[in-house]
Design brief:
Two copies of one chain form a homodimer.
Chain A lengths: L1 H12 L29 E6 L3 H10 L5 E7 L3 H11 L6 E2 L15 E4 L3 H13 L3 E4 L7 H13 L4 E3 L7 H11 L6 E11 L10 H4 L3 H17 L5 E7 L13 E7 L5 E7 L1 E12 L3 E4 L10 E3 L2 E3 L6 H15 L9 H20 L3 E2 L3
Parallel strand pairs in A: 1-2, 1-4, 2-3, 4-5, 5-6, 7-10
Antiparallel strand pairs in A: 7-11, 8-9, 8-15, 9-10, 11-12, 12-13, 13-14
Chain lengths: ~375, ~375
């Protein structure tokens, strides 16, 4: 117990409240999740979209203390059967895309996590809101800022919360860098660099379908650098420039971006240089440079352990599955009004969508696009 | 001796001819310079411009086998006196900027290394050529491509060589990456990233004077990323975009760029994302990404040991002072017509100047600037 207390005190001293994690396995340097009983309120979540990422979230939620899966929404009956069995979900909490508005009358479900192709988010989130349930939406929250605004408005009108799946906003090394930046440890921030990309496989997947994805790499992976630039620099950009490159027009059809370089300018004069790509292996790094020091995250946004260091030393925080932390923290946000250090709400998602709109415009026109603040 | 032979054989097997270095200090992992007698021809060099970098070159040349300092050209008599004493230079081999054309009649000098402010290079190199001496010119070779072309033409007409101080073209880790790239080890090249910058000090120095420097960070340090993009990717860019940011217009006056982001597009579809700055601490890294692997150099261009690795492992080549290697190799190029792996002649410098012209144009107009091949 001493080890655990020391560890938690150290975290507290670092000003960093680590969400879920807690007890240390005896004789091990690896933390495990808190298994002490929890009597507080529990967020009961229906997962909409039982694909790869939905499955990852569901697995991770098995370690949640404050959130659990109580329902599913899917167009594939066989998937629903599998999930029912795996997660002990009663028949009455299972829906398809036609009938899920009836979730309104289901007292077992507090929130719906929308993990479907991008093009469906807008309508689905609005229907969730109209059913009086809180909405959690995977990023990108929509195809563009106009859609995102509609979603924000609908949730506000329905008096439900709208949260976006920005799991990195709860990642300890990321938060520590943000804390150090706010404390002025890096001095005036000058430069951010974000590289976000991977080589995408199966050309038939929805992510490469303009109608379903709304774009290409920028929507799916480039958004990490867009979002990261904002939380790392700590300002909202005022201009954007962008350059698109396509080497494989068969795989990456019209409107599906393969590679986009983009640059952001911030009010302080800081600049960001970013890359979004579906054509390069495992690019996942953030670099923040200030007058007095720098910080690096590499990998910066992957599912596995994030590695980070600053000019003052390595960052050593234990890894906890991001989706577990996210869902426990979102339970706190929805049930208890907890405010995360970096916002995770619809307004936050809308900011990214406005920038992505501007990036596409800049790439298309070749012009610097101003962003309203 | 076995250690040395093994080492050299290994280098040879790696297809890498390491210029100067040779014997290993007994019982040490650090190489020392070859001290065996050398009977071949010796390049006799006059240094023009006895400032900080000129001094560094002179110091490094003390370890050269094939090149030595035999003359100086300076506007400051006291500096000439110091150098005469330090490097044992006879009075008859000392010149100032008015009379150095008389070098033409000096049989003790084969080449002049021009290490003066950028704005002076054009005229000085042309005068060296007219004096019938080979010219070595520090980079940037000129203020723009038009000047660079004049210099190339003048040296061609005078039948003298023109070499540019691209010391990285002889750096072992850099060359190893180029070798691996040519062998196809990284597969199709997709992306290059170059970060080149530092926080410049004394605001009164010539590098911050538009008349003498011809620009700002791009001329002085950004050129490393311009040049690096070309030798790392192995292609000539066909377009450039650029964005300039200025946070300190007092220190960085009109025409003196503080920070420029620039992007290059290559015929294969590969892209480069680069940063040139006088406002950020110690940015010096190259990253090359291909379909099958990547390479990193960090630091990539500093005077000290270059650190590098690829996706296949660390690069372990010993450090030898770059300027020593450069001057010995330039002796081979001038005296024996040796061709370096990456060209170091005026035509090579001209290519960089054309790109820098385009970067300034792109930054000014906000437009993508095509580059003729």
């Amino acid at each position: 117990m001493k080890t655990r207390r020391d560890f938690l005190q150290k975290l507290a001293a670092a000003g960093l409240a680590l969400p879920v994690l807690s007890t240390m396995a005896k004789g091990s340097a690896m933390p495990i999740l808190d298994t002490t009983p929890y009597d507080g309120p529990m967020l009961r979540v229906a997962i909409m979209g039982l694909g790869g990422y939905g499955s990852r979230v569901a697995e991770a939620m098995q370690d949640c203390k404050k959130a659990r899966i109580t329902g599913v929404i899917s167009g594939t009956p066989s998937k629903i059967k599998d999930w029912q069995k795996k997660y002990n979900i009663p028949e009455k909490n299972c829906y398809n895309y036609s009938n899920f508005d009836a979730i309104k009358d289901n007292p077992d479900i507090d929130a719906v996590y929308v993990i479907t192709p991008n093009a469906l988010h807008r309508e689905q989130v609005i229907r969730v809101a109209k059913a009086g349930k809180h909405a959690i939406c995977e990023k990108p929250m929509a195809l563009n800022a106009a859609e995102a605004q509609e979603m924000v408005d609908a949730c506000k009108k329905a008096n439900v919360k709208l949260l976006i799946g920005y799991r990195m906003h709860l990642e300890p090394k990321t938060l520590e860098i943000i804390r150090l930046r706010k404390e002025g440890k890096f001095g005036k921030i000058l430069f951010f660099q974000g590289l976000s990309g991977f080589r995408i496989g199966d050309p038939t997947q929805w992510r490469l379908n303009k109608q379903l994805a709304g774009g290409g790499s920028m929507m799916d992976i480039g958004i990490y650098s867009v979002n990261g630039a904002r939380y790392m620099v700590g300002e909202e950009p005022v201009w954007v420039t962008a350059q698109e490159t396509k080497t494989d027009p068969v795989k990456f059809k019209d409107g599906v971006d393969e590679t986009i370089q983009f640059q952001l300018g911030f009010p302080s004069g800081a600049v960001a240089s970013c890359l979004s790509t579906y054509a390069m292996n495992n690019l996942d790094s953030f670099f923040l440079d200030g007058e007095k020091g720098f910080a690096e995250l590499k990998p910066a946004t992957g599912y596995g352990p994030i590695e980070g260091r600053t000019s003052f030393g390595e960052l050593n925080f234990p890894h906890v599955t991001h989706q577990t932390v996210q869902m426990d923290e979102m339970a706190e946000m929805i049930l208890n009004g907890k405010q995360p250090v970096v916002p995770m709400d619809g307004a936050e998602g809308l900011k990214d969508m406005k920038i992505i709109d501007a990036i596409y415009q800049a790439a298309k026109t070749g012009k610097k696009v101003p962003l309203s603040r």
